[in-house]
């Protein structure tokens, strides 16, 4: 299967792709139309595209699916079709590098993958600037807060009207709690959430006046095992903390509305992916894919196959 549909509200395209050694693009807000009922889905933090095995396939999907639709969001001006200039070199780009994350420990091999990616980009003429992750601490925290409130509001909208009819075991304790939080959320809190998202977006726009692209780790640690995020509890704060700790820079792109691309970039000693993430200003989806294609041509990963489910002797 070359492509799989994916939605990303806080990394749900990029994190699975990163865990599996695949390519995942969270598009610029409004890049892919979602229909009149979802014109500003989840307050605009969610986007839809695909997970794929190659940058070229992701670019092809973007060319097919992107386009202006009548709705509340402006045309992001993506310079389509991306495939026509995917293999052309960019001019020198200012790359801001965040090898570590605020308030979250990044495993050494994953930080090293980011530094190796920075060295690779430097070798191709792009100036590198190492950035202080502490500068982004408030933005990361605010992004996670926005996401958590939006998800609670979404559960309240979808399940709130039937919550009294839900048996205890119809949904998990965590979902029951999310419904309660969303139903109890005040209009003032939702309004403040929207203002917070706007402040995050403005701060990221300011960031991209000094750098053209941000390079970060996609994951803080090895891909988690199944069951690492249990739903059999009602501590929503703990759940969001676990999610944020795994992919600390993921929600930032969603709340700011900017594109973010995760790429395989080597493996660790256990053979598990050590992915990196590229982020750019709104509308730079094609630029990120061009950089991703540069990585892909020099270190192709599509020949790698997962061990699980492979016939004996064919896994590599």
From TrEMBL:
Protein name: 6-aminohexanoate-cyclic-dimer hydrolase
Family indicated by similarity: Belongs to the amidase family.
Keyword Hydrolase: yes
Enzyme Commission number(s): 3.5.2.12
Superkingdom, natural source: Bacteria
Alphabetically ordered keywords of this record: Hydrolase
Pfam families: Amidase (PF01425)
Record-annotated Amidase domain positions: 1-289
Top EC class, one word: hydrolase
Protein's gene: nylA
One Gene Ontology molecular-function label: 6-aminohexanoate-cyclic-dimer hydrolase activity
